[in-house]
Amino acid sequence: MDNATIWEWVGYLASVVVAISLMMSNIKKLRWWNLIGAALFVAYGMAIDAIPVALVNFFIVLIDIYYLVKLYREPSDSSTSE
């Protein structure tokens, strides 16, 4: 299996992971899966010299990290009860 074929499969894997992320009802799981998929797309884009693919997915990685940090810093709403 040559390098081009390996990177093609990384692209397919990234697509599947992003699709899986969009099926998540839990926002934390969605963000984690989407982060993994976007990171794979960054690697894929760099490997095939598709800089726009790499850049937009790098931006998505940053967005996912931002919201994950925000989600984990928020106090849980389940602790407030009347």
Short descriptors:
elongated, 82 residues, 3 helices
Structural class of the helix and strand makeup? Answer: mainly alpha
Inertia-based shape: elongated
Instruction: Describe the sheet with the most strands.
Output: none
Beta-strand residue percentage? under 5%
Order of helices and strands: HHH
Terminal residue distance: 61 Å
- DSSP summary, beta strand count: 0
Low-confidence stretches: none
Q: What's the mean pLDDT score?
A: 92
Q: Helicity level, as a percent range?
A: over 70%
**Radius of gyration, Cα only, in angstroms?**
16 Å
Number of helices: 3
Transmembrane segments: 6-24, 36-69
Protein name: Membrane protein
Organism: Shewanella colwelliana
Keywords: Membrane, Transmembrane, Transmembrane helix
Give your account of this protein's structure.
The structure is a single chain. With 82 residues, the chain is mostly helical. Helix 1 (3-21) packs antiparallel against helix 2 and helix 2 (27-47) packs antiparallel against helix 3. The chain contains three helices and no strands. The protein has helices spanning 3-21, 27-47, 51-73. The relative contact order is 0.13. This is Membrane protein.
Topology of helices and strands:
Layout: H1 3-21, H2 27-47, H3 51-73
Helix pairs in contact: 1-2, 2-3
